[in-house]
């Protein structure tokens, strides 16, 4: 490959590259993290220009960074979060641990309605301040792309407020944010006895108004016995389809309603939670190219016992992503590395599947498979330099952070000075 380098290009040298590129095989013919040794990672502007055998292109006046035989991986992608919300539900959790039922807590105004009230009563500035702290923790662990949902406003004014906070966070931080409209998250108190009327509000007012303002890029729904039924979900998806908006769904978490099949019918980006997904649903999402998003934090926090059908998903070759599902009620964990560990220990994924789940497949779940989730020519230069030798090291030993440098769009951001590059 003939490349003439510019003096503004950057060469990352003397590193182990876990490219996550499935086309790169080891001697046994397996992808094995797409591992490359003795290769240079060449960055031009915001993208990866090339990955070439070490020293095969003259450096000329380029900046050369010696990675000191450390590990470089793609930046982590957190493809399902509810990061922007007001309030705190730790006291509810304490009540549950002390034997108070969820029904009793809800009757006292707790549960999701407590978060809705707190979010509605928070200013945009207050929401941004608390959300920034959560985001900081995720970026410090190597997250370079993240999805953020609305869904705690549940009316036009407050859903817009949430999404405006998401936009502000995107403008002020070195991270790519994928905003999602989740107005169909729960029935707000004022529509408690008429959920169909609330879906009318979402479809006729909230969704088109906020889409016109370009505040989101996909539509989500909680399709469940305690959320919205298939008919209501289909109404929402039809509205999205008319506007050419991608869809996704919280489905099959507590029961099997067939929500995954409905998402597949609309060529949805992802089906998320999916503990109760059956083979018929798996066949449907395989045909539609939909990603299965596993949320081990919620599985753990809710003490679930029914695992997602990992073996069947493997059998059908359905891509599996992993995410924090960061939210105040069921997964208050701002650590994607912890989720990778949980996915292996609780759900039975292999370490390589866990890595694919936060890179390759997470990018696909956000409609970014052509630009994110791999170290490859033409992809965004979003990657992490780790003080580690093997990918499994990153989530094997938790409690300290092996991140050395986080690189976003070619620019170095977070740095652990104790492990500074040569």
Automatic annotation (TrEMBL):
This is Imidazolonepropionase. It catalyses: 4-imidazolone-5-propanoate + H2O = N-formimidoyl-L-glutamate. The lineage of its organism: Bacteria, Pseudomonadati, Pseudomonadota, Gammaproteobacteria, Enterobacterales. Binds 1 zinc or iron ion per subunit. It comes from Xenorhabdus kozodoii. Its cofactor is Zn(2+); Fe(3+). Pfam families: Amidohydro_1. Zn(2+) binds at residues 80, 82, 250, 325. Its EC number is 3.5.2.7. It is an enzyme of class 3 (hydrolase). Pathway: Amino-acid degradation; L-histidine degradation into L-glutamate; N-formimidoyl-L-glutamate from L-histidine: step 3/3.
């Amino acid at each position: 490959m003939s490349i003439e380098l510019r003096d503004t290009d950057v060469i990352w040298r003397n590193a182990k590259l876990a490219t996550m590129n499935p086309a790169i095989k080891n001697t046994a013919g397996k992808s094995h993290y797409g591992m490359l040794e003795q290769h240079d990672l060449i960055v031009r502007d915001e993208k990866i220009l090339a990955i070439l055998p070490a020293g095969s292109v003259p450096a000329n006046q380029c900046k050369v960074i010696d990675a000191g035989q450390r590990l470089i991986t793609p930046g982590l992608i957190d493809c399902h979060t509810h990061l922007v919300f007001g309030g705190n539900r730790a006291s509810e959790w304490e009540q549950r641990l002390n034997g108070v039922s969820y029904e009793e807590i809800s009757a006292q105004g707790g549960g999701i309605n407590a978060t809705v009230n707190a979010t509605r009563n928070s200013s945009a500035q207050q929401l941004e301040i608390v959300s920034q702290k959560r985001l900081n923790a995720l970026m410090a662990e190597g997250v370079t792309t993240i999805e953020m949902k609305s869904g705690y406003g549940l009316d036009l004014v407050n859903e817009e407020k949430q999404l405006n906070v998401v936009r502000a966070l995107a403008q002020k931080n070195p991270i790519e944010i994928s905003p999602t409209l989740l107005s169909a998250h729960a029935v707000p108190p004022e529509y408690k006895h008429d959920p169909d009327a609330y879906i009318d509000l979402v479809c006729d007012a909230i969704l088109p108004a906020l889409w016109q303002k370009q505040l989101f890029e996909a539509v989500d729904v909680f399709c469940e016995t305690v959320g919205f039924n298939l008919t209501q979900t289909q109404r929402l998806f039809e509205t999205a389809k008319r506007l050419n908006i991608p869809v996704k769904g919280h489905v099959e978490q507590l029961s099997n309603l067939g929500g995954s099949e409905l998402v597949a019918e609309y060529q949805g980006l992802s089906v998320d939670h999916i503990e109760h997904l059956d083979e018929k649903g798996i066949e449907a999402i395989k045909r539609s190219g939909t990603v299965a998003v596993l949320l081990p934090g919620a599985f753990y926090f809710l003490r679930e016992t029914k695992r997602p059908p990992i073996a069947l998903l493997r059998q059908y070759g359905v891509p599996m992503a992993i995410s924090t599902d960061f939210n105040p009620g069921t997964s208050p964990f701002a650590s994607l590395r912890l989720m990778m560990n949980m996915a292996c220990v609780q759900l039975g994924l292999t370490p390589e599947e866990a890595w694919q789940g936060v890179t390759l497949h997470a990018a696909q779940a956000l409609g970014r498979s052509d630009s994110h989730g791999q170290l490859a020519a033409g992809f965004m230069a979003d990657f992490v330099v780790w003080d580690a030798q093997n990918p499994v090291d990153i989530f094997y030993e938790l409690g300290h952070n092996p991140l050395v440098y986080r690189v976003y769009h070619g620019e170095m951001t977070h740095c652990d000075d104790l492990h500074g590059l040569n």
